[in-house]
Structures are given as structure tokens and as C-alpha cells.
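Re: weekly structure request thread

Next one in the queue (164 aa):
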Amino acid sequence: MSAPMPVVLVTVAGKRFALDASEVVEVLPAVQYRPAGTGPKWLLGLFNLRGALLPLVDLSVIVDGEPTSIRMGTRIVVLCLEGDLFEGATRSVGLLVPEVAGLAVRDFRAPGAHEGFSFAGAPHLGPTVVDEDGTLQLLRCRRLLEGDAALRELPASSVDGSLG
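Done, posted below.
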């Protein structure tokens, strides 16, 4: 059975990815942030979103191993994540992406789709489909940072999910 879903299209290192639009709160231009100074390479630090400090994560580091170059089209996609990552709590996280290409509806269960990968280090790589623009892979946002305790160790007040 097919299940089309609304997605936010992003591009990283020339590859197209989709983020589940139900997890996206808003999309912002890149802003200054307070560097973490330590921790995993993908954790850039904290940024201020209308008085709430949210962790800022570099998607390029996670999917390509290289940091995002800040340009005019660079955006922060604010995600509302629930579940295992934060031990059942709901948290907001900023995801730095090189480019947001738009909104779409795609069916990742359509005939011919690849169901994705499930191996250590890549739980975030979801199903892949072919559309009029080439291949498009769904990123499982809730799994982007699973298993890495660094984000969980941020003070709760820093990632309380409040958007102001």
C-alpha cells in the first residue's frame, strides 16, 4: 500500500534528501551560533531562537563527512523530534543544511522504491525513490543522532523545545 507524504527537499554535496515535513517546525536563514567547542563534529553549538537556545547540528557532516559552507542559500531547518533520542521528551533541534530545494509530496513505498539501509552508523538513511529530478532519499530525522549521547547531555533548559 502506498503512503505519499509531504517532505522538505534539501541538497547536500549534490545529493537530494527529503525530511519528513511533519517533523519540521520552520526554516530559517543561517544565524550566528555559540560554538560547542567540544563534542562530536556534527554538533556545531547552540543558537538563539526567540529566547530559546537550541542545539545546532550540521547535516553535511552527518551525511557527507564535510562541514556545510555558509552561503546565501544555507538554512537552518528547525525539527521537533520525539522519542528515543531524548528519552521520550519532545525537543527542538536546528539542522544546518546547505540548501532547501522546496516542498513536495513523495511516496517512499511506491513500486521500485528501495527500502533503505539498516546498518550501524546509518540508521538515518531511509528509503530511496526515483522522481523526475533523479534519486531522492528520505532521512529519518529522529534517527540522525540516535545512539550519540552528546546531545542528550545538553542541559534540559537549553533544548526545552520552546520556540518563544
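The chain is about 5% helix and 45% strand. The chain has one domain: 5-152.
Next request, please.
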